[in-house]
Design goal:
Elements lengths: L1 H29 L5 E15 L2 E8 L8 E4 L3 E8 L7 E4 L25 E7 L5 E7 L9 E7 L13 E10 L4 H11 L8 E4 L16 E4 L4 E8 L5 E6 L4 E6 L2 E8 L2 E3 L4 E7 L6 E9 L11 E8 L21 H9 L16 E13 L12 E7 L2 E3 L7 H6 L32 E3 L2 E4 L4 E8 L8 E5 L4 E8 L4 H4 L10 E2 L1 E4 L3 E8 L4 E7 L2 H6 L2 E6 L20
Parallel strand pairs: 1-4, 3-8, 9-12, 11-19, 20-25, 22-23, 24-32
Antiparallel strand pairs: 1-2, 4-6, 5-7, 7-8, 9-10, 12-17, 13-16, 13-18, 14-15, 14-17, 18-19, 20-21, 25-30, 26-29, 26-31, 27-28, 27-30, 31-32
Length: about 575
């Protein structure tokens, strides 16, 4: 009898092992073409020298820019962020859908409390149906001035690009550099109520380029062979500035934006707003030599001050014998206020049609004004904005206030009262001539932490309307957790009767960040298929600090695949 019981136990164990093997084989089959990536980001101070000055900046792994992460569509990432800096920090994975994993999205006090000095947090997320170029950056204070890096998403194993495979592949990260400590710049602007100091330089991969003093030695060089095709992954990581980008004597074929493919077209210049990415293919078909790639501001604020310098890197053909040390050719970049060129570029963008079709029936028809404002205050050191005021910014006249006791997502998930309200207005509280002469009585917004709730699966349309309060301006508006179709853009006030008739519902560009035209409007559509709390804001950091943002709550749907995951055990607490 004893041996029979042993045999029965062994049979049960064999059955369990067989079941386990089946499960493991099933999982292996599921992830056969996917990989798991484990990274550690050490956030810390690092000494760097730029523009003849040495100072400490906040970096990841002592790199500026930070490390490039290269993954494939379908891969899963585990990134442990260890904070050894003086400041609170979070990391945002800009453009990643974060399907059911809003806890990994990263904006401070929206989806998480910050990682405090000495703390750590592991971001866990899977790339789902995304390919192309995205990026990651700090989403706490203005630390993203130096805490950022590229996120390259290759096609799945066995899949190809929808264009010929380029021979070389380079990230081109455009940034801004301040000689002063960036947190000091932020604090001064917040104290005075005035606009922040302009940057002292723009950068390509962290280097200003040799048009700036003390910068020749560090100028970035890209080496190419004659005849090669080169994929440039252009990322605008600048804190506060849209940028034109061009390469001398070379045409650029635009093949992707914001990790989506588009119908290819050729241009000699692109405009990239803060937060946006653009993939271009360059063919090294010119006389062997050295050619500048360059970027400088596209600035639209009336009488506004901006950094009017030019950053450069060098495209260098190999085996250049004569004139190897000669000055490279410089591209002719558009004027800083050349809205016609920026518009012509945007109008050429067309997506490659896919199974995800633009929704025709709209469940939520929203209209958001976006723009600056001014707050009246007693003249003094804290009122150094125009005419003794303080700058503010708003959507639908609500200047967004971030919570401090806990994050919006934790408050929503745990039903914590008193953190936010659900009364964000779906349309402007007052209708007016948005891009005309605006009454001074409309210049001062109201302040609040107001959210808007969406049902899972609802089809959403948002009209984004620029305003002339203080000044019209091109605003790069970013939606976390989603990408969207840009079905229309134009100038002046949006007219639903005439402008809707011209919407592109066949092949509109797909983005996660849309530049609302200066003195104009843009219309986006998306399906609310990702539950969580998602920030919607201007990606000019000074504007976000002034309140140009809001957040959506997207409710759970039915079943596991339509329900947000529970918070991870190491989620930072406030």
């Amino acid at each position: 009898m004893h041996w029979l019981k042993q045999m029965q136990k062994r049979s049960e164990m064999d059955t369990c092992i067989s079941c386990l093997i089946v499960v493991i084989l099933s999982l292996l089959s599921t992830f056969a073409n996917a990989e798991f990536h484990y990274h550690e980001f050490i956030v810390q101070e690092t000494s760097v020298t730029r523009l003849c000055r040495t100072k400490n900046i906040i970096t990841v792994n002592r790199q500026f820019p930070g490390p490039t992460l290269t993954v494939r569509n379908g891969d899963t990432l585990f990134v442990t962020v260890v904070n050894r800096a003086r400041y609170n920090v979070t990391i945002h994975w800009h453009g990643i859908r974060q399907m059911r994993t809003p806890w990994a999205d990263g904006p401070e006090y929206v989806t998480q409390c910050p990682i405090r000095p000495g703390g750590f947090y592991t971001y866990r997320f899977t790339i789902e149906n995304q390919e192309g170029t995205l990026w990651w950056h700090a989403h706490s204070k203005w630390l993203r001035a130096t805490v950022y890096g590229a996120l390259v998403i290759l096609p799945k194993q066995g899949s190809n690009f929808p264009f010929a495979l380029p021979q070389k592949d380079f990230p081109v990260l455009l940034g801004e550099w301040w000689n002063r400590d960036i947190i000091a710049v932020q604090r001064r602007a917040q104290f005075t109520g005035a606009a922040p100091n302009n940057s002292d330089a723009y950068t390509i991969n962290g280097q200003p380029g040799d048009l700036y003093r003390c910068s020749t030695q560090g100028t970035v060089k890209y080496s190419v062979n004659p005849g090669e095709s080169v994929l440039l992954r252009v990322i605008n990581a600048a804190l506060n500035q849209q940028l034109f980008f061009s390469v001398a004597n070379h045409m650029l074929t635009v093949v992707g934006i914001d990790a989506t493919y588009n119908k290819p077209f050729t241009t000699n210049v692109i405009m990239v707003g803060p937060g946006q990415t653009t993939n271009v293919i360059l063919t090294a078909n010119q006389s062997p030599g050295r050619y500048y790639m360059a970027a400088r501001a596209y600035a639209t604020v009336r009488n506004g001050q901006f950094d009017n310098t030019t950053t450069t890197a060098i495209l260098e053909y190999t085996n250049v014998n004569s004139g190897a040390n000669s000055r490279p050719l410089l591209p002719q970049l558009p004027a800083f206020n050349d809205t016609a060129t920026a518009t012509a570029f945007a109008n050429q963008l067309r997506s490659i049609p896919s199974n995800n079709r633009v929704p025709n029936q709209i469940d939520e028809n929203l209209f958001f004004t976006v723009g600056l404002g001014l707050v009246n205050c007693t003249p003094g050191p804290r009122c150094q904005g125009p005419n003794n005021t303080r700058f503010a910014a708003s959507m639908n006249n609500i200047s967004f206030v971030f919570p401090r006791r806990t994050s919006l997502l934790q408050a929503y998930y745990q039903n914590i009262p008193g953190i936010y309200t659900l009364d964000f207005p779906p349309v402007p509280p007052v209708q007016f001539d948005y891009t005309g002469n605006v009454s001074r009585g409309l210049w001062q917004p109201r302040f609040g932490t107001k959210l808007y709730k969406l049902k899972f699966g609802s089809n959403v349309q948002i009209v984004l309307q620029d305003t002339a309060i203080f000044s019209t301006e091109d605003h790069p508006i970013h939606l976390h957790g989603y990408h969207f179709w840009v079905v229309g853009q134009g100038f002046g006030n949006f007219n639903p009767q005439t402008d809707s008739a011209n919407f592109n519902l066949i092949d509109p560009p797909v983005r996660n960040t849309i530049d609302v035209p200066v003195g104009g409007w843009a219309v986006i559509r998306f399906v609310a298929d990702n539950p969580g709390v998602w920030l919607f804001h201007c990606h000019i950091d000074s504007h976000l600090a002034w309140g140009l943002g809001m957040a959506f709550i997207v409710e759970n749907g039915i079943g596991e695949k339509q329900t947000m995951e529970p918070p991870p055990p190491d989620l930072p607490q406030c």
